[in-house]
Amino acid sequence: MNPPRLITLITDFGLSDVYVGVIKGIIAQINPNLKTIDLTHQIPPQNILAAQFNLINAYPYFPPATVHLVVVDPGVGGARRSVAIELADGFLVGPDNGIFTGLLAQKPIVQAVELTQTQYWRVPQPSYTFHGRDIFASVAAHVASGLALSQLGDSIDPQSLVQLPIATPTQTATGYQGQVQYIDRFGNVITNIPGDVVKNQKWAIMLGKRSIPGCRTYSEVPPSQPLALIGSHGWVEIAINGGDAQFQLRLNWHDPITVQINGSE
């Protein structure tokens, strides 16, 4: 028998309440040998795009066959489907609301099912407000224990899985036009402009008439000064050396961002 698979957790539940602990309790009831890893429970409430951003950035760092349980579910109890998805190198469990968008665009889908077999839920009649507890945690534990997806429910066309429109940057005469796609807890503002387009270039972020220099490290500017760089995630990022770029530069999700290329290094 294969060893139990790892389960990762991404939610917007926060850490002030018992919700995360309850999820882990359900998993342990089904198989106490399963190991869970908390990726984050601090997704902004109902922010599906933030959840998919965190998932796509964490996914490559886990072994094949890891089960990724993602619960940011503003449509809980409504018409949206509950799904489990097998990729070539891992599994996804959660609501079919676009939360897997970025990953599904990158990875081949082996199979996808709608979770209709209630014997693998915690209870046959789940709460209308906590499918993370009553459906998804239980299903993730069964998948991590080796249950085939075909036993969990009805097969669905992978093309029918919800994928949200993700803005892509456009090339301009002087560089690239993009937008803010994520803001981390340090206030670093992460754009949707890939770092590859500014490598080996002299470049800057233009916020109105303000030019923020493209750098390699935070220390290239004095403390409290803004800079732009390629973050560890591979995207162009705006930061403050020792400060909060979102607050100091008054930036927010989806704000437009302009990269100006000033020639090769």
Condensed summary:
Helix 1 (19-30) runs parallel beside helix 4.
Radius of gyration: 21 Å
Biggest sheet record: 8 strands, antiparallel
Mean pLDDT: 95
Number of strands: 15
Q: Pairing-aware structural class of the strands and helices?
A: alpha+beta
Question: Percent of residues in beta strands?
Answer: 25-35%
CATH architecture of the largest domain: 3-Layer(aba) Sandwich
CATH topology-level name of the largest domain? Rossmann fold
For the record, give the distance between the C-alpha atoms at the N and C termini, rounded to a whole number.
55 Å
CATH class of the largest domain: Alpha Beta
Number of helices: 5
Order of helices and strands: EHEHEEEHEHEEEEEEEEHE
Explain this structure.
With 265 residues, the chain is of the alpha+beta class. It is elongated. Strands 8, 9, 10, 11, 12, 13, 14 and 15 form an 8-stranded antiparallel β-sheet that branches. Strands 2-1-3-5-4-6-7 form a 7-stranded mixed β-sheet, sandwiched between helices. The chain folds into 2 domains: 154 residues, Rossmann fold, CATH 3.40.50; 95 residues, Beta Barrel (Elongation Factor Tu (Ef-tu), domain 3), CATH 2.40.30. The chain is 18% helix and 32% strand.
